[in-house]
Amino acid sequence: MATFWQPGMMPIQLLLTLGVLFLVFVIGHYFIKKSFGKGLPMLAQGTLVWVTAYLFYKYVVQPPIPHSLLYIYMGLITLVLGLFVSANEASWTETKKPIIDTLVGATPTYRGVRTAAFVALPLLMGWQTYASIAPPKEFPEPPELRTVHPAPPQAIKVQDRNFTLQTAKNPFRVDVKGDYLDVGKEKAFFDSNPFDPKAEGYLKYVREGGAVFFRNCHFCHGDNLDGRGMFAFAFRPIPANLSDPGTIAQLQETFVFWRISKGGMNAPREINPWDSAMPPWEEHLKIDDIWKVALFEYWHTGFFPRTWD
Amino acid sequence: MSDSHTTPTSTYRRIRWAVWAFIGGAVIISGWALVLNRAHAEEKKAASAGATYRPEKPSDEQLARGSKVFFKECVWCHGPEGAGDGPGALRLWPRPRNFNAGTFKIRTTASGELPTDDDLFLTVTNGLPGSAMPSWEGVLTEQERKDVVAFVKTKMVKDRDFQDKDEDFHVISFDGQVPSSPDSIKRGQDVFLNKGKCVQCHGPDARGNGNLTQKDDWGFPIFPADLHQCWNFRGNRRDPYNPRNVFREVSTGLNGTPMPSFADVLTVQDRWDVANFVIAQCPKVKIDPITVKPAINFVLTSEHVDGPLPTTIDDPKWNGQDPHFIGLGGQITRKPQNFNRRIENLWVKSLYNKDEIAFLLEWDDRNESHAEGTNLPAPINVADLTIPVAYYANKMVFDEMKPTFGSLYPGETYPEPVIYNDAVAIQFPAMWQKLTPPERPFFIHGDPIKPVDLWKWQSDGTAVAYTGHGIEGKTGEDKIEPRKTVLKAEGAQFKDGVWHLILKRSLKTEDVDNDVQFEVNKYIPIAFQAWDGDNGEAGARMALSAWYYVVLKPLTPTTAYVYPPFVIGGVFIGMWWVVRKAKSMQNGNGHSGAKKK
C-alpha cells in the first residue's frame, strides 16, 4: 500500500482517485439528504466541487501540473458547473438566491456578510496588485514539458551499420543452442545466476551486459536501476528509472537500442536534447555491448520488451 | 466531600483549585518520569546486551535465498567471491567492499571487531551515501535484505567466522548524549584540534585535506572525510545531521581505514562534543530524501546592491544571501569520460549593480594544483607515488582490474599522468534572448549551431571568455575559442581545502552576438563546470552541472505602492454600484426576492 502513492501518478491512479472522489460526493450527498430532509444548496454544492477540484489538481496530482494547464482545467470545471447549475430555471434561481440575498442584504446575517465582503474584497485586490508588481521572494522554476518516449525513426545507422528498427532483433536474445528466444521465454532465466560458470547463451550475455552496465550506466541509472545513481542528483532531467513500469517495459527492445546508441543529444526536439546527459553510447561502446546491456536491463528488472505484434 | 455543608468561600475555592492543580501536575510529571525511565532502562539494556551479543547462525534456506539476491544485485560490484572485484569495480573509487577479511567500516562494535547483523542490515537498507552503494530499501524487502546479509557474512567473509566463540562483539553504548550547544561545539573544536588530534588528518578547516598520503588495508589511497559534506558521510544512515552517527564512528573507528577508534582516548562527553562540532561544520540545508544530497533549486538569484560590487570574498555585502548549492556530475557524455570527478559541488552567490554582475564561487578541493610550467606554486611531483592524488587512486584501480576485464575492453588505456590547473567555469547561452524556452545550447559547452558564452578561470590566474561549440565526438576535443571580452577575476585564493573566487563582468557589452547580455527580472540559463587539476581533469574531462537559471532580482518599483490604493478604491466603488443595481432591480419589479418566499 505504501508503494501505491508513488510520485508520478499513472493514469489509472488518477482515474481511480477521481472515481473514489465522485462516489464520496454522491454517497455523502445522499446521506445529507436523508438525515436533513434536503440536500446542500446548489451554490454550496458547486463551490465544494470547485474547491475540491482545485485542491486535487494543485496538491494531489503528481508530478505537479503547470499553472497554465491548471487554469485551463479550472476554467473548464467552472464552465461545466455553470452549465450544471443553470440546467433548468429552478436550479438557476436556487443558485442565484444566496448571491442576490447578499447583495440586497435580505437579513442581518446577509448584511454582515456584505459588509465583510466590502472590506475584504478591495483589500484582497489591493494586495494582489502589490504582489503582482513587487518582485517575488522566490523565483519558481518555469515549467518545462518534455516527452519521455519520442517517436523512433524508421532506421538508424550505428557505427556504419544500418538497423531497421521494425525488423532488428537483439542478436544475444538466444538460447543455449543459439536459437532466437521469443520474448517471454527468457522468464525461465530470471531466477538464475548469471555468474554460474556453466551459464551459456542468454544468461552468459546477461552477465556481459551487466558488466557493461556496471561500468558505464550505473553512475546515472543507479546500482538498482532506479535512475538514482551517483551523478543523478546533478542532472536534469533526472535519469530514467528503468525499474519503473513506465520506461523500458513500455518499449520495444530496438527502441532501447536506438536510445542507448544515439543518446539524448541526438534525440528529437521534443525531449529537450540540449539538457540530456545520456551519452551517444555508439561513441564509447561496441554495438554488441549495447545489445547486451539492453538484454541485461530487461533481465534485471524482470520486464519484457514490447513486441511489434 | 466533607466540606459539602459549608459554603465555599473564595479562599477555599482557591485552595481546592490548587490541590487539584497539584494532583494533576504530579500525575503528569510522574507519568512522564516513568516513560523516560523506561526508555532509559531500555537503552541501558540494549547497551549492556552488547557484551553478550551473539549472532545467530543463519539457516541453509536463508543462505540460499540470500545467494539469489547476491547474484542478482550485489555481485556486479562486490564480485562473485565477494572480493570487491566485480565488473563495476573498475571505475569506482571509493572501491566496493572486499568482504573476504570481514572488514566493515560502519559498525556499532569495537575497533577491529565484526559487525552485528543489524549494522550490516542498516548498511544495506540505507546504502553508503557518497559512494556507489545505494539504499536497497524499497528495492529489496526487509526479508531479502536480512537474507543477503546472512549470505554475505557467512559465505563471502572467508577469513573470519561470525559463529567463532573467540569473536567478541562489544556493542557501544550511546548513553550520555550531550545535546548540541555553542559550548559543546566549542569543546568539540578543542577535542578536534588538540585532544583528539583529528586535525592531523581532517585538516585545519576539517575539509579532509590534512593528510593525503594514507592508504587503506588493501593498499589503495584513501582520503580523510570532508567534514563539511555530512550528506556524504558513508555511515550517515540517510540522516546527515544526526551527531549519533559521528559519535559511533569516533567510538568504533572505521575498520580497514586509517580512522581509529577514539574510545580509549576520548571520554564519552568528548566524543559527543566532537560529534556536535563535526555536525556544526556542515551547512544546514534542505536535504533531498531520495538522493541524500542538498535539495537542488534550479533558479539562483542575483541581488541588487547600490554602489560598487565587492572585490574581496569577505566583504559584508555578500552576507545578505545564502550560498546556492550547485550539484556537479562527471562529464561522461562525450569523450574523454570522467567517471571519477573529484569536485562534487559549488556554492554560488551573486550580486549586481547598475553596471556589473559578480559571482562568488566557492568549492572544496583537497589539493591546490597548477599545471607544470606555470610560475605559481610548485606543481605536485606526479612521479612521486607517495602523493596519492586521486589520479593515482583511479589508475591503481584500473591497473588492478585490467587483467580481469581487459578482454572485454581491449583498447582501453588510462590517460597520461598530467597535472593541470584547477579551474572553474560559468556558462551562458549566447543570444539567449533569441531562443524560445526551453530551447538552449547543448549543456556541455554548447553545440555547432547554438554557441555558449563560457567564462573560464584557471588557477594560473587567467579568466577568459570563450565561445563554446561543444565537444568533438570522435576526438573529445573541447571546441572553445577565446574572445577579447574583459572578465575580472578577483579575490581568488586557495585556503584550507577551499577555492574562493569572484568573477565579474559588465552587464552589457558591445559584442552582443557572443557575450551574454544581462537583463533584470529574466530567467537567464546558466551552468557551471569545475576541473580538479590533480585528478587529470582538463578540457572535456570535467565535472559539470545541468542548466540552471539566474534571475537578476528587480528592485520593488514605486508603482507597487501607487497602484494598490487606486485598485482598492475602484473595487469598492464597483461593488457599491452592483449592490445599488441589485436593490433597484428588486424594488423595481420585485421578482427575485418575492418569488422565493
Note the overall shape of chain B.
globular
CATH architecture of the largest domain in chain A: Orthogonal Bundle
CATH topology of the largest domain in chain A: Cytochrome Bc1 Complex, Chain D, domain 2
Number of strands of chain B: 16
Structural class of chain B: alpha+beta
What do these coordinates show?
Chain A is mostly helical and 309 residues long. Chain A is built from 8 helices and 2 strands; from the N terminus they run H-H-H-H-H-E-E-H-H-H. Chain A folds into 2 domains: 123 residues, no CATH class; 147 residues, Cytochrome Bc1 Complex, Chain D, domain 2 (Orthogonal Bundle). The two termini of chain A are 34 Å apart. Chain B starts with 9 loop residues before the first helix and ends with a helix. Chain B has 4 domains: 33 residues; 97 residues, Cytochrome Bc1 Complex, Chain D, domain 2 (Orthogonal Bundle); 107 residues, Cytochrome c-like domain (Cytochrome Bc1 Complex, Chain D, domain 2, Orthogonal Bundle); 257 residues, Immunoglobulin-like, CATH 2.60.40. By secondary structure, chain B is α+β, with helices and mostly antiparallel strands. In chain B, a hairpin with a 3-residue loop joins strand 6 and strand 7.
What is this structure's SSE topology?
The complex is a heterodimer of chains A (309) and B (597).
Chain A: H1 11-36, H2 42-60, H3 67-85, H4 89-104, H5 108-133, E1 155-158, E2 161-164, H6 202-221, H7 253-262, H8 287-301
Antiparallel strand pairs in A: 1-2
Helix pairs in contact in A: 2-3, 4-5, 6-8, 7-8
Chain B: H1 10-49, H2 60-78, H3 117-126, H4 142-156, H5 182-195, H6 199-202, H7 243-252, H8 268-281, E1 287-288, E2 293-294, E3 299-304, E4 324-327, E5 329-330, E6 345-352, E7 356-364, H9 390-405, E8 423-429, E9 452-458, E10 463-471, E11 478-482, E12 488-495, E13 498-506, E14 524-531, E15 543-544, E16 548-552, H10 559-589, H11 591-596
Parallel strand pairs in B: 3-6, 3-16
Antiparallel strand pairs in B: 1-2, 4-6, 5-15, 6-7, 7-13, 8-9, 8-14, 9-10, 10-11, 12-13, 14-15, 14-16
